[in-house]
Amino acid sequence: MRLLTIFALTYLFYSIFFNFLKELSFILENHFHVYHFLLDHRIGGPHVYVDNFRQAMAGSIEAVVVTTGRGPMTEISLFNFRHFFYLLYPIEILLNICFIFFLVMTKKIKKKNAIFAVHGSANLAPIIAARILRMPLVWHLHETTSRFKSFVNFGKVLLNNSPHALAVVAKKSNVVYGLQNTAFLPGSVDPIFWSFEKVSSEEKQACKWLEKKESNKPLRLLAIGNLNPLKGMDILIDALGGISSSCHLKIVGASLATHQAYADCIYSKAADITNKKKSIKVEFLGWQDKTDVRALLASCDIFILPSRSEACPIVLLEAMSMQCTCLAADVGDVSLMLKSYTKSFVFAADSVSACQEAIENILRNPIEDFDKPSLIESHWQLNKVVDQTETLYRRVLFLGDHVRKKL
Question: Which of 262, 362, 213 is CA-nearest to residue 302?
Answer without folding.
Answer: 362
